[in-house]
Structure formats: C-alpha cells, structure tokens
Prior knowledge:
Protein Smg homolog; mainly alpha; globular; Smg
Amino acid sequence: MTNNILDVLTYMFDYLFEAADESTGEIDDTALKAHLSNAGFEVMRINKALDWLENIASLQNGEAQAFSNTQGGLRIYTNAEKIRLDAKARGFLLFMENIGQLTAIQREIVIERVMSLDVNNLNLEDLKWVVMMVIGNSDDADEISPEWLESVVFLDDNHTVQ
C-alpha cells in the first residue's frame, strides 16, 4: 500500500459507505481513525487526509465565494494544473459540468483539492474519487444517493452518467 492521502481517503469512503448502510447515526471520528489505523495507514496520513477532507467543507461553506463568478465562463488551466490533470481528466470535469452534475464552484474546489494532493499526476479513477468527495460534501448531498456517487467513480469511458 502506498499510503498516500488519496489511498486513505478512498479506503475511508469505502468504509463510510458500508457504515452508512448499516447505521443511521453519525460516524465517530475516534472509531474512524482506529479503523484506518488498523487497516495499516499511518496516523500522520490519516490526519492529513481528514484535514484535506475538512478543507472541502470549508471551501463549500463560504470560502468558495472567490469562485462565484465562474458560471458560464471558460476555464483556462495553468501549466501546473495541466501537468496534474491530463486532457482526459480535464475532459471528465467538463463532461460532469456540462451534464449538470458538477457546478463551476465544485469544479474549482475539485481542482484546488487535486492541486493540494501529494501526487505528481492523477489518473482518471483518482480524479473521480475526488469529484465524488466534493459532490458528497456539498450542501445538496442529501439529495444524492450513495449509489449514484459510486457510479461516478466506477464509470468507464464507454458509458455515461445516468
């Protein structure tokens, strides 16, 4: 296991989806950290992953106002963003935005969160996990089914999102 932040996050989301099916209450932070630690993740990585995830909530709860004028505009990627997000990844973000499943603000949050990861370049499957985490942490996440969110992650190149 490479034990990077994205590995911790994807494992955590798998666990949370299972826990959501089994319980109606909130997930205890201590239990979650213990579960991740028992799975072999380093405490430092677990804390970084939780901080990374917490930043999504911060961005969605007000700090995203800096992105509020992005509706209907053309997104020009910086060279650093192009290195981290290849053409296929940028195409996926555009696709999700065009079908109305990702807002311009959420797209910017996805890009910001991708740029904060400790990876050199991101494959499409990893990007889909980040998109799922951003959508899942949005204000209207209650209206989104966990099955639909999972379908975003496991969507292959030959199918479209329902």
